[in-house]
Design brief:
With 135 residues, the protein is mainly alpha-helical. Helix content is 76%, strand content 0%.
């Protein structure tokens, strides 16, 4: 999936740990499909979405706590991902019997991670880093 090297780390242990777990679940979904275990996709998708929701809440609480100026925008971005998470759940359910659902599931999980980590979370990396240095 995404190789979470140092350039993707936000230097916030809780967030970085969540990102690593989300990436691992995405890899598990891909492996289930590639290894002909699509019946595992429904449960893995539920776990992925559950962790996304928990992660979004924790991330938003952190941004509020440190007075990140674009916290509202970040919350709105997370809200925009809920539709994608619903799609992931539906595709996970359909994956056992539908090849197109399996292919789509792989893409949707990857796109959600890219959208959250790369397109949005990296935008507050410097702010979090400066708070960590000061604190």
């Amino acid at each position: 999936m995404i190789d979470i090297d140092d350039s993707f780390l936000l230097e916030c242990e809780e967030i970085d740990k969540d990102h690593a777990w989300l990436n691992q679940l995405a890899e598990d979904i891909n492996a289930a499909i590639d290894e002909n275990r699509p019946q595992d996709c429904a449960e893995l998708s539920r776990r992925f979405v559950s962790l996304c929701k928990k992660h979004f809440g924790a991330e938003e609480a952190l941004l509020k706590k440190i007075d990140y100026p674009d916290a509202k925008h970040h919350h709105e971005h997370h809200q925009s991902l809920y539709g994608k998470m619903d799609t992931i759940l539906k595709l996970g359910e359909a994956a056992a019997s539908n090849e197109l659902a399996r292919k789509s599931l792989k893409k949707e999980v990857f796109y959600l991670l890219m959208d959250d980590i790369i397109n949005e979370d990296l935008s507050f990396k410097e702010f979090v880093h400066s708070i960590n240095k000061a604190g």
